[in-house]
Amino acid sequence: MKKIIITGALGQIGSELTIKLRELYGNNFVVATDIRKSSLEVEQSGPFEILDVMDGRRMYELAKKYQVDVIIHLASLLSATAEENPLSAWQLNMGGLLNALETARELQIQFFTPSSIGAFGPNTPKRKAPQDTIQRPTTMYGINKVAGELLSDYYFYKYGVDTRGLRFPGLISYLIPPGGGTTDYAVEMYEQAVKKGKYTCYIAKGTYLDMMYMPDAIQAIMDLMEADPSKLKHRNSFNVSAMSIEPEDIAKEIRRYIPNFDLKYEVDYTRQRIAESWPDSIDSLAAREEWGFQTKYDLAKMTREMLRKFEGAV
Ligand code: NAD
User: N or C: which end of the chain has fewer CB within 10 A?
Assistant: First the structure.
């Protein structure tokens, strides 16, 4: 990667990814774009442009103007929000993706977009879901992600576009609140533990889901994008995960620092149904074998850092 354009750059992933890429490649070599403005460091530390990903022409023109060689497409509606607005989700998630793939095809540049554990469904193996397995999701978000994986592979086979992707689990970070996903509870639990000493969880006790700490997710994007293409048997998208946990596991770790932390449950059945349709855990073997995927953060290390960051913010 030499010069990169990012869509949806003010979101949970983009805001940290942009800063990290600017540190590595130089501020002027990472063009951040989003449909909205904010006063974040992302906007101030390097080039920033307003871009609605539904405007394919402008996306192409910006990519051309800045002479980028990579497009990282992040703008989308996440699982819980998509379930509330399925039609808007289809339009944005598929329309924006197609515009980004077309930009990559026309300019023959490298392409990355995240998929998700949401690309799996109730008849995917529940434990250690393999890289290649049944994908029959029952959510609009999942349907978008499976279609996105297939389309991205299609652009590789048909047009030779260097498309690559990761199936992210729930991502945990402190800088930007998560944007309407099913696993947002994990971030909220850390924040409320520090601020109020208690949290009411919308996901039921005993519901296992895969998670990963943001620095590991960002490293995984960079490692995959720099990976030797001749080693990649898969492209869109690789299973990646750091841990399979349920709400009580996080609470237990939090209590090592905040012994009276009180966790209650008030289940939101929309999000619970989404969570139950996903595997308890996924298997990252293909990512490890094909491009050396690894993580630095387990639950204990992530909890220590999340609490420290939120304590610093109170
Ligand atoms: P987010 O919701 O935090 O951010 C999305 C960004 O897209 C926002 O800044 C929003 O303003 C922008 N956006 C919305 N509509 C737009 C439009 N029409 N044009 C341009 N920008 C628009 O999302 P995120 O968590 O950063 O996720 C990014 C990608 O990663 C998504 O594809 C998501 O499905 C995937 N993913 C995220 C997670 C996670 O836990 N965060 C897990 C798995 C996959």
Answer: C
